[in-house]
Specification:
about 400 residues, alpha/beta, 2 domains, eight-stranded mixed β-sheet, 16 helices, 13 strands, about 35% helix
């Protein structure tokens, strides 16, 4: 039985950095298992959306799984809600949220509230459960660290409202605005603003935030929303390719995308979606899942986290850690004659700390793969490989071709 594992190291692509003497973290890393995958397989680079187009993590994963993000994307908030375990219903609107820090002049100081802990965020989220709105029911859930999800339930709601979180610090908080002329969008913007105002009042007076201020830490005194989304309507991946597919991830977004596309979610104890995740456990669960599934998607967030924190040296160390930890999985893949693809969902330059549109490296190993001459897994080495340069939506078809799941076109 032919099977494949898809490993996505979030935000792993990078650019040359001064901190690493002009190398990318992948180039500088001592990552023998990554290099082993490259040397045993065929390499290339991938424009996850299109050349030069910075992807969001949501649209990136849609593309990697073979779905056109331009036509099948319904807003990040929906995926976050599904990944948080909420059952989103038609007509409801969901938002990705950040606990953040603003000053008395309404200037955003920190979009992540000093990377507040998951435990602290859950305490604050509990305090927001009593919020009542005039024309909708709010459901707020914290997920990982500063991240959360807001779902609005009610009549005449629309996802066509602007982001309050504009991915910038040092700017004044904006109000949610309708993005079209519909009554529904205008109504949703007003309801959302009401929630944000009421949440801020609760958070500013919460004992936990007063304690954080006393300790010299940044308070989580506002909820910033973005990515308004509604329940996606897509063909499940198992119907697209006649396979059984499973997903292993810690972050709500990645769980939610997988759930929306029909993957079975495998929950791993200790999989946090942070740098402090239990990667050994995720690897073991991946190996176990291969007994039951044709495709196993393994998502690793840590590379992106340290990129956003602008720590190139730490990113190099995280890459080395991942390379060590996946060794038993690669051993199994090679011994059983399975396939494995290693890639990233986007480039997050660790000197900039934001997503960019540079292509990401890709390597595919397995039986009958046309091995090329590449022996190192990094952005420049892979660019010389036999796969050449593809788009993200091409990857799943390439993998399914190896599994003999792609039907003939023509006669």
């Amino acid at each position: 039985m032919m099977k494949t594992v898809l490993i996505v190291c979030d935000g792993m692509g990078d650019r040359p950095t001064k901190a690493l003497n002009g190398l990318t973290p992948l180039q500088a890393a001592d990552a023998p298992t990554f290099n082993r995958i490259a040397s045993l397989g065929e390499c290339g680079i991938m424009d996850v959306i299109s050349p030069g187009q910075p992807p969001g993590s949501d649209t990136a994963h849609l593309a990697i799984f073979g779905y056109d993000p331009y036509t099948q994307y319904s807003g990040r908030g929906a995926y976050e809600a599904l990944g948080a375990g909420l059952d989103l219903k038609p007509g409801e609107v969901a938002f990705r949220c950040n606990f953040a820090t603003v000053n008395d002049e309404d200037i955003i100081i920190d979009r992540r509230a000093g990377r507040i802990t998951t435990e602290e965020a859950r305490i604050l989220a509990q305090a927001l459960k009593d919020i009542k709105l005039e024309d909708a029911e709010p459901i707020f859930v914290s997920t990982t660290e500063h991240r959360g999800v807001l779902v609005l339930r009610g009549d005449k709601l629309s996802r066509m409202v602007s982001d309050v979180d504009v991915h910038e610090v040092g700017v004044r908080i904006g109000k949610p605005k309708p993005l079209d002329g519909s009554i529904e969008a205008e109504h949703t913007a007003k309801v959302l603003e009401e929630f944000i105002i009421k949440a801020r009042k609760i958070l500013e007076n919460h004992p936990l935030n007063k304690e954080r201020i006393a300790k010299g830490l940044r308070p989580a005194n506002i909820v910033l929303t973005r990515g308004a989304g509604t329940l996606p309507n897509v063909k499940p991946i198992h119907k697209m390719w006649n396979i059984k597919a499973a997903a292993i991830a810690g972050g709500a977004l990645y769980k939610g995308i997988a759930r929306a596309l029909g993957f079975d979610l495998i929950n791993v104890p200790g999989a946090t979606g942070t740098v402090n995740t239990d990667l050994k456990a995720k690897i073991q669960y991946t190996m176990d899942a291969l007994k039951r599934y044709d495709l196993v998607f393994l998502h690793i967030k840590a590379t992106d986290t340290v990129s956003h924190d602008k720590i190139p040296v730490k990113k190099k160390e995280v890459i080395e850690w991942i390379s060590r930890e996946i060794t038993p999985l690669v051993d199994l893949i090679e011994s059983q004659g399975y396939y494995l693809a290693l890639t990233a969902d986007h480039t997050t330059p660790s000197e900039i700390g934001e997503h960019r549109g540079d292509p990401v490296p890709l390597a595919i190993m397995g039986p009958n793969v046309r091995r090329d001459w590449i022996e190192k897994f990094d952005e420049l080495s892979c660019a010389r490989g036999g796969i050449c340069r593809i788009k993200g939506v091409d990857l799943m078809k390439i993998l399914m071709n190896y599994l003999d799941k792609v039907p003939l076109l023509g006669e």
